[in-house]
Design brief:
InterPro entries: ConA-like_dom_sf, Glyco_hydro_7, Glyco_hydro_7_sf. The strands form eight sheets. The protein has a 16-stranded mixed sheet that branches. Strands 1-8-4-5 form a four-stranded mixed sheet. It is mainly β and 448 residues long. It has a domain of 254 residues: 1,4-Beta-D-Glucan Cellobiohydrolase I, Chain A (Distorted Sandwich), CATH 2.70.100. Helices cover 12% and strands 34% of the residues.
Length: 448
């Protein structure tokens, strides 16, 4: 075993203490309405959750790096390997046919795991790349077991198909071991970016015993199809001024802590459509028009200017299917915003103005920038997480919490501003789960 690990040296490699067996997940690709074919896919756990070690000695333990194995980025990458995952036993992840279930708190043999993030694979070593323009993406979700403060998320990010292997010779693990993550928040908590350990200036997070932040962030365009719990939901495009993954440093990361949120290369706020925030408080939730106590099918359509794949993205539409009927998305009911029910550049501009928000979406390129990234393709991400920054209040409560009572755009859900603290959610709702199933992809109006 030790010899096998040493042979893989001079790169971020793979270890085999735990066999890496990707859970199977089927989905359906439609050619036209009523004409679909089953795709035999797999899922893979993100590298950040994996045991990272050198011949059994931890490279990363708790929320700190080993000073002996990881004194600098290159040495760390050369020393360390990513191990396989016990998906159900360690991470609370299971699949059955076309269904994926993510558990929240999982007590494994060696540690307690909180949440997870997985990607859809095309084959053992490649992510499935979805080209969304002039297409629709449909899935069914059960959020009934997600309380305030949790987020069962399904979204797309501009990761590399192979996890970054072809661009970064130091990365030998690749998509097979869930490498290459990025998003529009330019996360600094990624342990490896472009295969290189993010050890420089690493600071453990004070309120998260498993996470820290390094000097670099991992930025890329992000399309949030579904961020939700049983109380609230939103869908949100975020654009960046670069295509694909960019390892950021300094101002280009747009770090909020450094008061540079709008100076970076990505639009961190995005342009969200949250029915509650946009004036319809009876649309989504337990017992509401879209009843979150039951599974619901979510349809998202990426409409182009000419109705062809060659057109520019012009609109993102949303429909729901529940109880055998199609439910159109709620209409905006806010002064100063046209009473539509979809996301467009016009909607985004009106919303930002009405709410007094910084229109970084427009500054970073809006639909034109997103359209360009959709041509290149994006990777499907499915996750369950709690929020150590602001307790998920931006999704399901009143945020910012110091806003004037009733200020437009601040009421995003009915959860209390005291809710969502990770320590509370983890202790009070450890058995929370989200289930995603019946993923479908095809031409507009073909999958429901």
């Amino acid at each position: 075993m030790i010899l096998a690990l040493l042979v893989l040296g001079k790169s971020l490699g793979i270890a085999t203490n735990q066999a890496e067996t990707h859970p199977k997940l089927t989905w359906t690709r439609y050619q036209s309405k009523g004409s679909g074919s089953t795709v035999n896919g797999e899922i893979v756990l993100d590298s950040n959750w994996r045991w990272t070690h050198h011949s059994g000695t931890n490279c990363y333990d708790g929320n700190t790096w080993s000073t002996s194995l990881c004194p600098d980025p290159t040495t760390c990458s050369n020393n360390c390997d990513l191990d396989g995952a016990d998906y159900p036993g360690t991470y609370g992840i299971s699949t059955s046919g076309n269904s994926l279930k993510l558990g929240f708190v999982t007590h494994g043999s060696y540690s307690t795991n909180i949440g997870s993030r997985v990607y859809l694979l095309k084959d053992t070593k490649s992510y499935e790349m979805f080209k969304l323009k002039n297409k629709e993406f449909t899935f069914t979700v059960d959020d009934s077991k997600l309380p305030c403060g949790l987020n069962g998320a399904l979204y797309f990010v501009a990761m590399d198909e192979d996890g970054g292997v072809s661009k970064n010779s130091i990365n030998k693990a690749g998509a097979q071991y869930g490498t290459g993550y990025c998003d529009a928040q330019c996360p600094h908590d990624m342990k490896f970016i472009n295969g290189e350990a993010n050890v420089l200036d690493w600071k453990p997070q004070s309120n998260d015993e498993n996470s820290g932040n390094g000097r670099y962030g991992a930025c890329c365009t992000e399309m949030d199809i579904w961020e939700a719990n049983s109380m609230a939901t939103a869908y949100t495009p975020h654009v960046c001024t670069v295509t694909g993954l960019r390892r950021c440093e300094g101002t280009e990361c747009g770090d909020t802590d450094n008061d540079q949120r709008y100076n970076g290369i990505c639009d961190k706020d995005g342009c969200d459509f949250n029915s509650y925030r946009l004036g319809d408080k009876s649309f989504f939730g337990v017992g509401k028009t879209v009843d979150s106590s039951k599974p619901v099918t979510v349809v998202t359509q990426f409409v182009t200017s000419n109705g062809q794949d060659s057109g520019t993205l012009s609109e993102i539409r949303r429909k729901y299917v529940q109880g055998g009927k199609v439910i159109e998305n709620s209409k905006v009911n806010v002064a100063g915003i046209t009473a539509g029910n979809s996301v467009t550049d016009t909607f985004c501009n009106e919303q930002k103005k009405a709410f007094g928000d910084n229109n970084d979406f427009e500054k970073k390129g809006g639909f034109g920038a997103l359209s360009k990234q959709l041509v290149a393709g994006m990777v499907l991400v499915l996750s369950l997480w709690d929020d150590h920054s602001v307790n998920m209040l931006w999704l399901d409560s009143t945020y910012p919490t110091n806003a004037a009572a009733g200020a437009l755009g601040t009421e995003r859900g009915a959860c209390a501003t005291s809710s969502g603290k990770p320590s509370d959610v983890e202790s009070q709702s450890p058995d929370a789960t989200v289930t995603f199933s019946d993923i479908k992809f095809g031409p507009i109006d073909s999958t429901y």
